[in-house]
Amino acid sequence: MVFDWENQNIIQKNKLNSHVNIIPFADENNTNYLEVGLSPWYKLLNGEWNFYFTKSPLVGPDDFLSESIDKKSWEKINVPSCWQLEGYDKPHYTDEAYPFPVDPPFVPDENPCGYYRREFKINSKWIDRNTIITFEGVDSAFYLWINGEKVGYSQGSRMTAEFDISAYLKEGINQLAVKVIKWSDGSYLEDQDMWWLSGIFRNVYLYSLPKIYLADYEVISSLDDSYQDGKLEVKLKFFNSFKKLVSKNTVKVKLLDQKNKTVWISAEEKFEIAAESDKKIEIKTIIDKPVKWTAETPALYKLLIIFDSELNKEKEYISSSLGFRRVELKDGNISVNGKKIMFKGVNRHDFDAETGRTVSLDLMESDIITMKKHNINAVRTSHYPNDPRFYDLCDYYGLYVIDEADIETHGFMFTTNTGELSNNPDWEEAYLDRLKRMVERDKNHPSIIIWSLGNESGFGCNHKVMAEWLRNRDQTRLIHYEPDRKQEIVDFNGPMYSSVEEIVKKAEEKDYQKPLILCEYAHAMGNGPGGLQDYWDAFYNYERLQGGFIWDWIDQGLLKKENNRQYYAYGGDYGDYPNDRNFNLNGLLFPDRTPSPACLEYKKVLEPVKFEAEDLTKGEIWLINRYDFKDLNNLNFFWKILVDGHIEKSSQFEVKDIKAGQRKLLQIELDDLERFKDSEIVLEINCLLAESKKWADAGHEIAFEQFILKNKKRNHNNKTASKLEVLEGENKIKIEGDEFYYQFSLLNGELEKSIYKNKELFNKEPEFNIWRAPIDNDEPYEEKWKKLNLDKSIQKLKSIKVKEKSEDKVVVEKIIKVGVPVYSLTILVNFDYLIYADGEIEVNLSGKPEGDWPVLPRIGLKIELDSSFKNLKWYGLGPGESYYDSKNAARIGIYKSEVAKMHTPYIFPQENGNRTDTRWLSVYNNNGLGLFITSEKRFNFSIHDYSIKSLERAKHQDQIIRGDKTYLQLDYKQQPLGSASCGPSAAEELKADDFDFSFSFKVNSSNIIAFNKLY
Q1: Helix axes 428-442 and 388-397, enclosed angle (nearest 10)
Q2: Which of 247, 373, 642, 719 is 20 to 30 Å from the Cα of 569, by its Cα?
């Protein structure tokens, strides 16, 4: 027996054709398309439903279609929801592989199935009309019954399915039954990088239409060739469900502006409709100089359709928004309203850590507001059409959208090739259906400027058919599909994970004439990505490069609660096999939607206002407007002078009439700075919103920049204090001063004692360290690192001696050889401990690698301190973490914190919390005792209440063992982040064969409170 859910030629039964959202209103004064609850003809069916779960669609409850059910044998479930997160079945994560045998169109016999039941009430006003039931998202296939009668079938998880249920209804209580099947032949087209989750996961609702009704409409709101006047076309399609001709029908269209003022009203169109037939009406006009829609200026008009018929009891009002904008290829670039734009984009999944693919309107709105606050202007709905309300929000707040069809067949890479179904004509209709449903549902949104044919499904004949249909259907938007590498059917080159070098090489080809936009880049998995600034420097330096879409928006960690534990789960945490572990944790946001350090870095490199130094001695700085359309008159500008991290002076300055794409040379008065001759002087410029916007309050920072006007001169003061005493003997070297002493072992070379005021400063001597807990982007290196045992390095003392001694300074020289088990890789490290009479200890390190070392994780010192040292203050980049290739968002300043707060909670634990370009650091206990650390050169540091081993062993945040000590890492260098978890390696690697290293730190413990007050 061939089942519907195992037959690619059966996509639906009795389902209505896809169309735009049509909810009629009864009152012209209450026609807000965003508030459909105001309509008397709308009934939301979300809530608690009865639910029965089985392991096969061939098994179900006996009373499924009965007028009433035995509630004792049924359970309750929330609709919408994913049943795996309601206690049935288990979540399963794969990136590429299908979690079932690949044998299309067939799926396993063990195929979980959910049976849903609920009642709803229909009153007499609805009975005389047509009633439509809408399912906005059901994974992956389902049947529908009303009052025990089968209505129809549908598949295609992320697309709306509607059925006309008028003939099945009765006045009063009606029974609704839905059978949802987990796996179907459609699942072969839904192999996206995300959790496999099932059920009715989006809204379910009823709406009522009169017997003669508006069945669909298309709004084309473009611009003329001068980009000044609006060209408005409204294409209406009516349907007469009577079995007779209806001759007296009228329709007119109104256009209202942002202040709800009528801009235009059409003449009343009169028409007749034949029995059970369609009627198409087209209304066109020219709108004089409308306010144009862009992502920067999302000006929306309200379209109101007023329809009346002699056989309908009352008028119907249908409303939607529209924006006047024109999208085209112009001079080799994608342009909006005649101007080239930059895509400062992000890929986004519909995802909530607690509800999976069921995402509330508030959460969607929160996402878009966060995007706008972080200078993001574009989103790709990877890799399927999103919840319909998401596009309304993109229209309103202003985001360019690539709307992507629900097609991905990645898992065929393990059998034949990813394009197996794409090249199979038997699957053509299944491909086309998904494209058509997306386009017909979403066609009126001004935010959607590009259609995508799907993702990672090879390239084949079915894509060519899709593109041909789309070209004929919509000439107002462009087409994207990444696997079309030769751009046979698409409008631009949209590769993924290309390196900066690769896109630059492409842009420099003399005969290359198409735009290049990275549909995915900068894989934000765990700690990373690095190198974002390099991409954006390239985007702005080459005409054909127009930005890209970072991967991706949010970590897909599911909040899991078990055995008094609560943590974010990833692949394998539910016993799911096969799985791709934590490869779904690659978002700019953590699962709780807190912005990650990468999100802050992305905001910085995307800034629409930039500042570049011309002549800092004269205070000359270029201000560059990188908006595509706006001037800078809606922004306030401030500057301030920082002297050794403290604000010395500040002021506001005026910027006028700098149009989009222009630059202006600023002159900032920098007088009276000579008196700070021994200090570091920094100029900071801030750009803030002057007035509140839909997405941010006045005062929100859009951009900033810092310029070092003068570097600090290092003081080398002679040490004045009591005399030092050196005691040698009994296999020890002891250096004593006033209230402190240091003691070295001559047997192993360790600094055994570091006592100040009877308090041990170091729990363990500073130890040379080359290891870090691998980050996700260390993927190209980690296997080799561990094979070479870099995480198990062993140190051997070569020699230790007092190299120099006087009353005010003692130098202890220690030479060690660092090696790894099994291999003959060594680093000869020379330690010089310079101990001064005031208690300061300076540690000078130099070294030379020997052997065929790989790229190293880091070069530095790790220091164990007492756990009471839990406070810190530093001068350098902050307040958040920064790394060599990801520090644009950090600012030079003085910062205070606590050790426990220096942790960045990447869901899969890994190296985190580094601060770069540090000038000084103090670490101290509540009594003011501790360490004050400086260096001749700026340094990196991180500090935690857990060890590197504890961090590396943990697989989730709650498994990190904390609190026994304070662990300080001082680094000369650390391997950059890159984005090699899925993309290019770091631009500049820490290669051992490129260097002989030399660096130093000074540690003073005499009076931390005094130092903190001084600095």
Answers
A1: 40
A2: 373
CB of 299 closer than 8 Å to CB of 322: no
- Residue type (1 letter), 660: A
Mean pLDDT within 943-958? 98
User: Does 988 score more than 80 pLDDT?
Assistant: no
Report the first-to-last Cα separation within the chain, whole angstroms: 81
Give the sheet arrangement for strand 339-340, strand by strand. Answer: 327-330, 333-336, 339-340
Give the pair of three-digit tokens for residue 687: 């750009």
**C-alpha distance from residue 260 to each of 217, 257, 702, 756, 993 (Å):** 22, 5, 30, 74, 69
* Distance from the Cα of residue 955 to its chain's centroid: 22
Nearest to 948 by CA among 817, 827, 836, 857: 857
Check if 456 is active-site. Answer: yes
Q: Mean pLDDT over residues 51-77, rounded? A: 96
Q: Tokens 């390095």: give the residue.
A: 793
- Three-state DSSP class for residue 572: coil
Distance, in Å, from the CA atom of 670 to the CA atom of 668, rounded to the nearest integer, reads 6
Rounded to the nearest angstrom, the gap between the alpha carbon of residue 424 and the centroid of all alpha carbons in its chain is 34
Measure the CA–CA gap between 32 and 24, rounded to whole angstroms.
10
Is the pLDDT score of 995 beyond 80?
no
Instruction: Tell me the CA distances in angstroms from 84 to 18, 341, 361, 418, 467, one per residue in order.
Output: 29, 42, 22, 28, 36
Q: What is the pLDDT of residue 801?
A: 96
Sign of CA dihedral 394, 399, 400, 402: negative
CA distance 493 to 267: 44
Q: Which of 456, 601, 607, 842 does the annotation list as catalytic?
A: 456
pTM of the model: 0.97
State how far Cα 839 lies from the chain centre.
Answer: 49
Label each residue of 799-863 as H, E or C: EEEEEEECCCEEEEEEEEEEECCCCCCEEEEEEEEEEECCCCEEEEEEEEEECCCCECCEEEEEE
- Do residues 116 and 178 touch, judged by C-beta distance below 8 A? yes
Res. 756 pLDDT band, cuts 50 70 90: confident
Structure tokens at 295: 């992502």
472-488: average pLDDT: 98
Q: What is the pLDDT of residues 290-324, one digit of tens each?
A: 999 999 999 999 999 999 999 998 999 999 999 99
3-state secondary structure of 40: coil
Q: What is the pLDDT of residue 751?
A: 94
Among residues 6, 316, 520, 705, the one annotated as catalytic is 520
Rounded-to-integer distance, Cα 42 and Cα 25, Å: 9
Name residue, tokens 């580094």.
914
Beta bridge partners of 42: 207
- What's the Cα-to-Cα distance from 153 to each of 16, 146, 161, 182, 722, rounded to whole Å? 11, 12, 9, 14, 91
Beta-carbon neighbour count of residue 83 at 10 Å?
25
List, in order of start, the domains of the chain with CATH numbers: 4-209 (2.60.120.260), 212-312 (2.60.40.10), 328-497+513-530+546-605 (3.20.20.80), 609-710 (2.60.40.10), 768-1014 (2.70.98.10)
Task: Based on the residue annotation, tell me whether 86 is a catalytic residue of this protein.
Answer: no
Listed residue (536, 462, 465) closest to 504, CA to CA: 536
How far is it, in rounded angstroms, from Cα 439 to Cα 739? Answer: 78
Q: How many CB atoms within 10 Å of residue 100? A: 18
One-letter amino acid at 1010 equals A
Name the β-bridge partners of 1001: 843
Q: Rounded to the nearest 5°, which phi and psi values hold at 962?
A: -120, 160
Q: Are strands 400-404 and 378-380 parallel, antiparallel or unpaired?
A: parallel
Q: Is there a contact between 842 and 860 (Cβ–Cβ < 8 Å)?
A: no
Calpha distance 908→614 (Å, rounded): 44
Q: Is the pLDDT of residue 267 over 70?
A: yes
Separation of alpha carbons 243 and 180, rounded Å: 35
pLDDT surpasses 90 at 720: no
Tell me the CB-side half-sphere exposure of residue 905, using CA atoms within 13 A: 17
Find the length of the chain.
1015
